[in-house]
Design a protein that fits this description.
By secondary structure, this protein is an alpha/beta fold. The chain has one domain: Alpha-Beta Barrel (TIM Barrel), CATH 3.20.20. Helix content is about 40%, strand content about 15%. The strands form two sheets. An eight-stranded parallel beta barrel has the order 1-4-5-6-7-8-9-10, surrounded by five helices. The chain has a two-stranded antiparallel sheet with strand order 2-3. β9, α9 and β10 form a beta-alpha-beta unit.
């Protein structure tokens, strides 16, 4: 069993437990549920790349990254650095995340675009995302059938949430649903952890029409962002590059400053 299979099996049990602990009706009483969501400024991406900076304490591939990082302080630093959005891991078992992180950041920053990053497999999780203040959710093609992608994407749309659809192979692109406007290529194989940025270069030609292309993972230098931006990518989801540093917000700010100096 590879790590993605292990995560999938664990997540199914976790979802059942959460449904029992907090029924769907309870989520509808949360202040952020069905709120008017924030959207990424797409016009700004016409003049330069946008960064989706991630907050996570650990990962299956790199282990513990930054166990003491403060989510609110980091979010404030990311926002000051000029990120297009912030990705917040809510998976506890494999990434050290929590709903508390997402909720605290939303309460502190009403207008910051927040992507809930987790292994979403059930419509219940879409409603959780809304309740805790997310603006966007991640759907991973490798975890889902085409019919599930459609169901989850439509459920997200009914709550005002945008979808980032993540692929790692050309055949996974066939699961895309026309309601999804963000398509990400994960340069890291979730089954083997092997990183190959060339995958983004290959799959940019296979993007559906009128979507916003996103390159994810394995990006460490402004020149890599510049190359991918020239190829057609508009957004870049980055986590370990920042979270492995003592102060992720400072690392993010320095990266974005260097990015603006790239020729």
């Amino acid at each position: 069993m590879n790590i993605l299979d292990a995560i999938s099996e664990h997540k199914k049990i976790e979802i059942l437990k959460r449904k029992q602990k907090r029924p769907l009706g309870d989520l509808s009483t949360f202040p952020h549920y069905r709120r008017i969501t924030n959207e990424i400024d797409l016009k700004s991406l016409q003049t330069g790349p946008g960064i989706i900076a991630e907050f996570k304490r650990k990962s299956p591939s790199k282990g513990v990254l930054n166990p003491t990082a403060d989510p609110v302080r980091t979010a404030g630093g990311y926002r000051a650095a000029g990120v297009s959005a912030m990705s917040v891991l809510t998976d506890r078992n494999f990434f050290g995340g929590s709903f508390r992180d997402l909720h605290m950041i939303r309460d502190a920053f009403e207008n910051l675009v927040l992507l809930r990053k987790d292994f979403i497999m059930d419509p219940y999780q879409i409603h959780e995302s809304s309740a805790y203040g997310a603006d966007m959710i991640l759907l991973i093609a490798a975890l889902l059938e085409k019919s599930q992608v459609e169901e989850l994407a439509m459920e997200a749309g009914s709550l005002g949430l945008k979808v980032l659809f993540e692929v790692h192979a050309i055949d996974e692109m066939e699961k895309w649903h026309p309601s999804i406007s963000y398509v990400g290529v994960n340069n890291r194989d979730l089954k083997t952890f092997r990183v190959d940025r060339q995958l983004s270069m290959e799959l940019i030609r296979q993007m559906p029409p009128r979507v916003v292309p996103v390159s994810e993972s394995g990006i460490g230098h402004p020149s890599e962002v510049d190359q991918l931006y020239r190829a057609g990518y508009k957004l870049f989801l980055m986590g370990e590059r920042f979270m492995s540093q003592p102060d992720p917000a400072v690392a993010c700010g320095e990266f974005i400053k260097a990015l603006t100096r790239e020729p």
